[in-house]
Amino acid sequence: MTQSLTMQESPMQISLPCRTAFGPVGVIRAAFAAIMLTALAQPVAADPLSASGNGPYEGHDLQVTFTNARTANHHIRYKFKTADGSATGSGRWQDYEPASGYVQWSPHQSIAQAPATVKTFEDSLCEYDETVKIILTDPQFSTWIPSGWFSFCPNPRGFPCRFEAEVTIKQHADGCAARPLGE
Question: What is the pLDDT of residue 32?
């Protein structure tokens, strides 16, 4: 005999087979599967990561500080890389030097251990403030155990697998009133 269990509380309607021939074990398995599917259908919490730049003028280093609203009992490390926003990282009018590395948090810390640093270039163009994208990917989590550091996945507590922020590079306004803006 096959019965069907339908979840009514979730926005998704999923029918799960439940074999009563296996007795309570089959019913428990089906109930556990229904609970897991309900949990997966719940909305994801807001992104715990944020980034802010020091807003330097072109020609000065851009420092990007990362904040984590959900402190954890373990070390967290993300890979970071830069990408073009309105500023360009290559070509004749290069605004910044592409950078990559790691951003990491110690246990129970909300501010990353060190900011990501991006070298910017001063040019003679009259232009508006520009942005650089900073992308965090590949989260890694580790904790100390008596035999050493232990890294683990999957991603605990809903940290994003990818985070992207845009930070500003200010432009010098010297002489721009007499010239048109543009690159």
Answer: 52
Instruction: Identify the pLDDT of residue 55.
Output: 93
Do residues 104 and 160 touch, judged by C-beta distance below 8 A?
Answer: no
Tell me whether the omega of the peptide bond preceding residue 154 falls within 30 degrees of 0, making it cis. Answer: yes
pLDDT for the residue numbered 132:
96
pLDDT along the chain (183 residues), means of 10: 44 39 56 51 62 93 92 85 95 93 91 94 85 91 67 60 91 61 50
Q: Do residues 103 and 136 touch, judged by C-beta distance below 8 A?
A: yes
Angstrom CA distances, 46 to 37, 71, 82, 133, stand at 20, 14, 23, 20
In the chain the first and final C-alpha atoms are separated, in Å, by: 73
Quote the strand ranges of the chain, DSSP E: 2-6, 15-19, 49-53, 62-68, 75-84, 100-105, 116-118, 130-145, 148-152, 162-169
Total length of the chain? 183
Secondary structure of residue 145 in the 3-state scheme: strand
Strands across the sheet with 49-53, in order? 49-53, 62-68, 116-118
Q: Sign of the CA dihedral 110, 114, 116, 117? A: positive
Let me know: does 107 contact 55? Beta carbons within 8 Å. no
